[in-house]
Structure formats: structure tokens, C-alpha cells
User: Which sequence fits this backbone?
């Protein structure tokens, strides 16, 4: 299957691809319930791009968009694309400190805040003394001051070289990592559903995963490329989601495992019946899928639960399952066409079939690199173009990938990346804390973040106080579910904390907060 030929040059042209099925068809049902046709989306992007240019946005500039899911966020992202500016899509639920770190690293020309739909974005806008403007078609948007020192990056006609979106993931060094995704990266993955006939113009789905996250972005763009319709949901709502399923309105339900677990619990608690419906499948991503979750979802909705796998650095899709309903697989499928993978051992040599090793990935989905961090980029992308995923996997005789574990300490909480060192640094900032160690412990469909702290001699602090202390420093999904105070953290002779002992202790022993 060819996923590279006849692609548009820029991501905003995805709307024109969808419009080929009829430009009067509904592309977006916005957060207020208003329908936007493909033609209306295209014309609004044109007008907003002109207004952004009048605000000083140039080709090569970074445009930071602090947002929750909304038609305004989508329009602003595509308007930036039309100007050859980079969209720095940023979740409004991040803390003020996290927003500031991203702004400092990316040096945007201006910051746009979708303040009407997002109270959190409005707070950030107020803190930045942003000006309220009315932009064509999308209404009130708050806009930060011009960054006169922001220098534009080089612009490339080649879609494979021109950055479309800069998505930040906080790094273990304290500096956030800006993942540079090119237009070709994103278009290659966006076209997959339509060209592989897993998405159709008749499809309707909720846009519930944050579009500031690579998973939410690819779901948005994949459905628009196919000419389908997206219903925007800024924050997950049980009633609206399940009503849309029960009414037969939506044909695809996308969510992360943690959210699917919540859906199942809600359905069971309220004795709801979810069949018949018009779903063709339920789709999960960003976290490993366990068999019990898959079985529950398939029993409740009477359709197959598919699983996708990837990283922000791979735009994000690497593989997708081809399950049949009722089967027992929990692999993450085969690589999508055009993506090459290999599994290597600690010595860098490929391992045999069924053996565990680190997954390396090469293809048009692999990022251009980390913004302003060439050494870090070289650490993860080798001379042959293979990206080190940090995931330990095995391949079976069908080429299907099964995740065995993670070679790094990355925690995935509710579909978001959480780096322990960032959480540890926030806890260590408290005067009573001598050392902190953060681990992830698998729970059904998710990971629980547990922080172990050792206090300074004579120090005294309650876990609740520590939770309150980090509340304004970390986004909610990064905050530990449990904070445990220990007399002393286990240490190796070289002074490193033995996290594997803490993980074993957490898994084998009930922990009292």
C-alpha cells in the first residue's frame, strides 16, 4: 500500500482532501454544537491566516497555541500551516511553569490562547497580559505580545523538511523536548486510514483526545483526510459520549485505556445497554492494552477493540492491529506500510524471532529531531535513520509486535508521558524533602505514579502537604497518585537510588499513605 504518493504539501490542505467528497458536507461539529462544512473551514483558515500575518506572523515563525479541543485551535493550527509557520500546540491544562518552559524553549513570535472554550487557557492569557481579539469566524481569541527577538527558521518547499508542528514532551533533564514533525510526517500518517480503507467519508467520531497531543492530532487529521465528520469535545463527558453511541450517531470511538476503563465502569454502574449501535470499531492507543479490557469493551459495544502503537517522535503511528472481534491477541499489530522496524539487543545486533530487544523504527513517520537539541537528536536517531524507541519488544512469525517493557523509566499516565525526574525535582524543592524517587506501577489500563520520599533529619511533612506543594508546579496527570514517606530510600554504593527495589515493594506490599 502506497502512503507517500500524491500527498498534499502542507497539513492545512487536508481540508481540501476531505472536501473532495463534497465541500458542503460537515467536517466539524464544534464544541457548541454548530456544524462547519469543509468549505467553511477552508475559507475561515484563509481569513485567519491573513489576520495572523497582519499580527506579524511570518514564514518560519513559531506560533504557540495554548488550547483545549476547539474549532478555534484547529483553525489556528491550519492557518499557521498556510503561512509556513510552525504550530506549537500546547495543552492549556499544563501548569504556568510548564507553559513558561515551552514558551522559553520555542521562542514563539506570538502566543494565541483559546480562552473562550478553555478556562485554563484564559488564566494563562490573563497571566501573560494577553490582548483580546476577535478573529474571523472563530470569535474571541487572546493574543500575547509580539516577541520581537524571535527569529524565523529556514523555510523549505519540501514537505519532508518543513516543520508543521512542534509538540513538546518534558525531558528528564528538566529542559522540555520539542519534537519537530514535518508536514510529510503528519500527512503520511493522516492518509493511512483513507488509503487503507479503515476510515471513510461516512464516519463520525468524537474529537476527545487532546489535539495538542500527537494521538489526538493524528485522529483529527486522519478523519478529515478521509472526508469524515468530527464532533469536538474539549473535555470528556460520559453522557454525551454514550448518548452518541446509543443513538447511532458515531461510527468510531477513540480513547486511551484509562478512559475506556472509566467508560466501562460507568456503563456497568448505571446498567446501560450500548447495543445496538453504529460503531465499526473502538480504537485505543498511547498505552499497552490488556486482554481483560479488550474483552470488556468488545462485550459491551459488540465490536472489535483495535490498538495502535507509536510515539510522538513517530507522528505517532508505528503499528496498528488487525484483530477480529473475540480473539485473544494483545499485540500491537504490524508496522504500517512504509515503516521498517528491527529489534536489537544490548550489543546493537538484531535478535531472533520471539526474542526481546529494543525496537528501532525507520520511515517517513520519524521526526526531524528535537528543536535546538542536535546532540539529543543524534542520541535517538542513528546514522541509518533508525529511531531508538526505548521500548523492549518481540516480533512473532507474522511480524506482529508485542511490548515486553520499557528500557527507560518513562511512565505513561492516562496517555501522557510522565518523566520521573521532573516529578522528583518538584518534590525535592520542598524544604523537608531530602530525596524523592518516582516510579510507575501498572494498574488496569493505566500506570499509577508513586512517589517515595526521604525527609531531611528532623523533618516532618504529610503526604497531603506534599501533594498540595506540587499542585501548581505540575500538570494534574503528572502528580503522584500516592506519596509514601520512608525512613530511608534504598541506595546503591554509588549513591544511586535502587528504584527496582521500590517498584518491587510497591507491587508486592500494600502501601499505607
Assistant:
Amino acid at each position: 500500500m502506497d502512503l507517500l504518493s500524491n500527498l498534499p504539501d502542507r497539513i492545512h490542505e487536508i481540508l481540501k482532501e476531505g472536501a473532495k467528497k463534497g465541500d458542503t458536507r460537515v467536517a466539524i461539529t464544534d464544541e457548541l454544537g454548530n456544524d462547519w462544512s469543509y468549505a467553511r473551514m477552508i475559507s475561515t483558515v484563509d481569513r485567519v491566516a491573513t489576520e495572523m500575518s497582519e499580527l506579524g506572523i511570518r514564514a518560519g515563525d513559531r506560533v504557540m497555541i495554548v488550547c483545549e479541543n476547539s474549532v478555534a485551535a484547529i483553525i489556528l493550527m491550519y492557518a499557521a500551516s498556510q503561512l509556513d509557520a510552525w504550530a506549537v500546540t500546547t495543552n492549556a491544562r499544563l501548569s504556568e511553569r510548564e507553559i513558561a518552559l515551552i514558551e522559553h524553549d520555542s521562542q514563539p513570535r506570538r502566543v494565541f490562547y483559546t480562552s473562550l472554550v478553555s478556562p485554563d487557557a484564559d488564566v494563562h492569557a490573563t497571566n501573560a497580559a494577553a490582548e483580546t481579539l476577535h478573529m474571523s469566524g472563530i470569535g474571541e481569541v487572546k493574543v500575547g505580545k509580539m516577541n520581537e527577538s524571535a527569529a524565523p527558521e529556514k523555510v523549505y518547499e519540501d514537505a519532508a523538511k518543513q516543520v508543521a508542528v512542534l509538540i513538546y514532551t518534558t525531558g528528564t533533564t528538566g529542559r522540555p523536548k520539542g519534537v519537530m514533525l514535518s508536514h510529510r510526517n503528519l500527512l503520511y500518517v493522516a492518509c493511512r486510514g483513507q488509503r487503507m480503507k479503515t476510515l471513510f467519508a461516512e464516519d463520525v467520531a468524537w474529537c476527545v483526545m487532546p489535539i495538542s497531543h500527537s494521538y489526538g492530532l493524528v485522529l483529527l487529521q486522519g478523519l478529515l483526510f478521509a472526508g469524515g465528520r468530527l464532533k469536538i469535545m474539549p473535555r470528556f463527558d460520559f453522557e454525551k459520549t454514550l448518548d452518541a453511541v446509543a443513538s447511532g450517531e458515531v461510527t468510531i470511538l477513540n480513547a486511551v485505556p484509562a478512559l475506556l476503563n472509566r467508560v466501562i465502569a460507568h456503563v456497568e454502574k448505571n446498567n446501560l445497554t450500548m447495543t445496538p449501535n453504529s460503531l465499526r470499531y473502538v480504537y485505543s492507543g498511547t498505552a499497552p492494552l490488556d486482554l481483560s479490557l479488550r474483552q470488556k469493551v468488545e462485550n459491551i459495544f459488540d465490536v472489535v477493540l483495535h490498538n495502535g502503537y507509536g510515539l510522538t517522535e513517530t507522528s505517532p503511528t508505528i503499528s496498528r492491529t488487525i484483530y477480529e472481534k473475540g480473539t485473544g491477541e494483545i499485540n500491537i499489530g504490524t508496522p504500517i506500510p512504509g515503516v521498517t522496524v528491527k529489534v536489537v539487543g544490548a550489543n546493537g545486533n538484531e535478535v531472533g524471532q520471539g526474542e526481546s530487544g529494543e525496537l528501532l523504527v525507520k520511515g517517513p513517520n520519524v521526526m526531524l529531531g528535537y528543536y535546538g537539541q542536535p546532540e539529543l537528536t543524534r542520541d535517538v536517531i542513528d546514522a541509518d535513520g533508525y529511531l531508538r524507541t526505548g521500548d523492549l519488544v518481540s516480533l512473532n512469525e507474522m511480524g506482529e509486535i508485542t511490548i515486553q517493557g520499557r528500557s527507560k523509566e518513562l511512565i505513561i499516565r492516562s496517555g501522557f508521558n510522565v518523566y520521573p525526574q521532573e516529578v522528583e525535582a518538584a518534590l525535592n524543592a520542598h524544604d523537608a524533602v531530602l530525596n524523592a524517587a518516582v516510579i510507575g506501577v501498572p494498574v488496569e489500563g493505566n500506570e499509577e505514579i508513586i512517589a517515595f520520599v526521604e525527609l531531611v533529619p528532623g523533618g516532618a511533612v504529610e503526604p497531603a502537604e506534599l501533594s498540595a506543594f506540587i499542585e501548581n508546579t505540575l500538570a494534574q496527570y503528572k502528580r503522584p497518585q500516592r506519596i509514601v514517606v520512608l525512613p530511608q530510600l534504598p541506595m546503591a554504593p554509588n549513591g544511586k537510588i535502587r528504584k527496582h527495589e521500590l517498584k518491587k515493594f510497591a507491587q508486592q506490599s500494600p502501601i499505607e499513605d
